[in-house]
Amino acid sequence: MFKEQYEVVGPTDPVFAVAGEDVILPCSVKPNISVVDMRVEWYRSDLKDSQPVHLYEDHEDKNTDQIQSYRGRTNLNHQQLQRGNASLKLSSVRVSDEALYKCFIQSRSWYDEATVNVNVEGAKTIEN
User: Fold this and answer.
1) How far lies 24's CA from each of 19, 67, 86, 89, 117, in Å?
2) How confident is the model over 20-53, as pLDDT tens digits?
3) Counting Cβ atoms within 10 Å, is residue 38 exposed (0-12), middle (13-18) or buried (19+)?
4) Which residues form the Ig-like domain (predicted)?
5) What is the DSSP string of 45-110?
6) Is 56 a domain residue?
7) For residue 27, is it within any domain?
8) What is the pLDDT of residue 124?
């Protein structure tokens, strides 16, 4: 019996983001198989409720239960999913986005997850 086995890989170092700008949270599978037919869920490990930061399932983004503060600010590149790349684009970064994120990828017979540590540098104020 064939078992799908893959490893979900995130960055080894923290991802630095600047408040107000966009950032990519890297996440991919090894080997580079398509994750189009899988469930891809991004969530924050520090938030106990099960609301996702971003959810892709059944070939579409399902963000009805998405955390309110992330509405309209997350994006998965569906063409990249075919290459095993499930990186999340987060737009208009806020200081409150600083957290540990989990990239969880689940197929019919297997799942794995990776952690992405996001550090946000606040907008610096210039003092006269």
Assistant:
1) 13, 18, 10, 4, 12
2) 999 999 999 999 999 999 999 999 998 877 799 9
3) buried
4) 20-119
5) TT--S---SEEEETTEE--TTS-GGGTTTEEE-HHHHTTTB--EEE-S--GGG-EEEEEEEE-SS-
6) yes
7) yes
8) 56
Specify the pairing of strand 111-121 against strand 15-18.
parallel
In this structure, what are the phi and psi dihedrals at residue 105, rounded to the nearest 5 degrees?
-125, 125
Q: Has residue 74 been placed in a domain?
A: yes
Domain that residue 103 falls in: 7-114
Question: Does pLDDT of 1 surpass 50?
Answer: no
Tell me the HSE value of 41 on the side-chain side, using a 13 A CA sphere.
17
Q: For 65-102, what is each residue's pLDDT tens digit?
A: 999 999 999 999 999 999 999 999 999 999 999 999 99
Residue labelled with tokens 């490893």: 7
Domain assignment present for 62: yes
Q: How many domains does the chain have?
A: 1
**Does the pTM exceed 0.85?**
yes
Q: Which two tokens stand for residue 28?
A: 């991919």
Whole-number pLDDT of residue 41: 97
